[in-house]
Amino acid sequence: PYNLKELPAVRVVEGPLFSEVVAQYQHFEQTVRIHNVPGVDGLSVDITIMVDIRDQTNKELAMRLVTNIQNGDVFYTDLNSFQIQPRRFYQKLPLQGNFYPMSSQAYIQDSHHRLTLHTAQSLGVSSLESGQLEVIMDRRLMQDDNRGLGQGLKDNKKTANRFRLLLERRSMGNVMIDSGTTSFPSMVSHATSALLNHEVLALPVLPKRRGVPPLQTFAPLKSILPCDIHLLNLRSIQTQKDPLFPSPHTALILHRLAMDCGFEGQNLGFNCTTTRGQIIVSNLFKNLDLHLLQPMSLTLMHSSTPLANDSTISLDPMEISAFKLKLR
What we know:
There is one protein chain. By secondary structure, the protein is mostly beta strands. Helices cover 3% and strands 39% of the residues. It has one helix spanning 187-197; strands spanning 9-14, 18-24, 28-35, 45-51, 59-66, 74-79, 83-88, 100-102, 105-109, 113-119, 123-126, 132-140, 159-169, 229-238, 246-256, 278-280, 290-296, 312-314, 320-327. A nine-stranded antiparallel β-sheet has the order 1-2-3-4-13-10-9-6-7, covered by helices on one side. A four-stranded antiparallel β-sheet has the order 5-12-11-8, with no helix packed on it. Strand 11 and strand 12 form a beta hairpin.
């Protein structure tokens, strides 16, 4: 346990939109916030920990979550923010051998609940006891650990670690479908991960000035995409003749999320519909006509036979597909 030299300074803020508790310790500042808003923001606990262990010698700072979830020795981490991988705690391994990379999330679960820790940065995570989830937030090592770096870890900075803690209850009648090799997040979990890793960028606009034309709104989509379809990219393709100018063709890259539907999802605050991976691309855009629909490789270097403009494309779960479009 973290040894306190003095009691922390605690600040409590309460308001109609959110409430938070900020605890200031010697080597970290922990902010725990709950949002009172509809949608994904209000379904999880927002945790930010500002870590500063620059004055320590051979120390690691970890955050441990202790619950009554009966997960045994099995926990789950994501693989490259794309696929969930079951992990197991082995007594025969040393402590460091039981920690695994957590690119975007990790969770423990039993037949009734799932506790997911979403992260905005890659960290090491483990479950050393049943019902526990432990994540290493920073490490300071004064000498080489003979793991190939050739020096100690002494370049520590004051770092903010951001998390979202999501607790989900399994729907009555739904049993665990997770096997020894596969497991999938819920739709709320996917949306929570997107909240951390695909933040909305708010760009302030200067007030109108004489002679400066006002900015125009560009909203090319007719409606929102199905909630299991992630629009990875929609961009102009450069011309081969002059790379400085865009071509009339557009690259569309889509990812269909794989999800576990066995969790309760009442009062989400947003509409969630799926089409089983079926999308009619010509119906996606407003005020734009589709003149070309051509499947491409993910690098956009290799093309397949063009499809009919009103074709329905089908994406399998966890599949990423690229298309070349011509819009007018």
